[in-house]
C-alpha cells in the first residue's frame, strides 16, 4: 500500500522534474562561437535557469503564463516556461502588427536538453499564422559542446 501511495504522489514529480542543464557550453552558429554558461537553482519551488553572464535575465520554469511587454510588431504576447520529460521548454505567443494593422499571430518555442554525451541541445521553432495564408514554420537546432569536465560519482 505504501508503494502505491509513493507511485501516485512522487512518481509524477520525478518524471516531470526539470533537467539539470548546468555547465559551460560552446555554441557554434554561422561561424561565430558563443560561450553559454548555464546554471540553475531553486526559487519558490521551481527551477530557475540563467546564464552566468546575465543572471538577472534568467527564466523561472514554473509553468505560469506571464504577460510580455509589447516590442515592435509583437503585441499582446505571453510567455510560459516549463519542463517536460527531460527538457526545459519556453513558449512565446502573441499577435503581429504592422503599425496599427493586425497582420497575424506567432508561436515561438525554445527547447533545451542534454544529449547522451551531456552536450546541450537547443532547438527553436517559429510558427506564423497570417489570415488567408498557409502556416509558415521554421525550425533551427544546434548542439553546444560541453566545455567543463563532467565528474562521475
Layout: helices, strands, pairs:
Layout: H1 2-9, H2 11-15, E1 23-29, E2 32-43, E3 46-51, E4 54-61, E5 65-68, E6 74-84, E7 87-98, E8 101-114, E9 120-129, E10 136-146
Antiparallel strand pairs: 1-2, 1-10, 2-3, 3-4, 5-6, 6-7, 7-8, 8-9, 9-10
Which strand order spans the largest sheet, edge to edge or round the barrel? 4-3-2-1-10-9-8-7-6-5
User: Any idea how many domains?
Assistant: 1
Percent helix range: under 10%
The largest β sheet comes out as: 10 strands, antiparallel
Number of helices: 2
Strand content: over 45%
Straight-line distance between termini: 33 Å
Spell out the helices and strands N to C. Answer: HHEEEEEEEEEE
- The average pLDDT value, as a whole number, equals 87
Counting DSSP E segments of at least 2 residues, the number of strands comes to 10
**How would you classify the helix and strand content by structural class?**
mainly beta
| Coarse morphology | globular
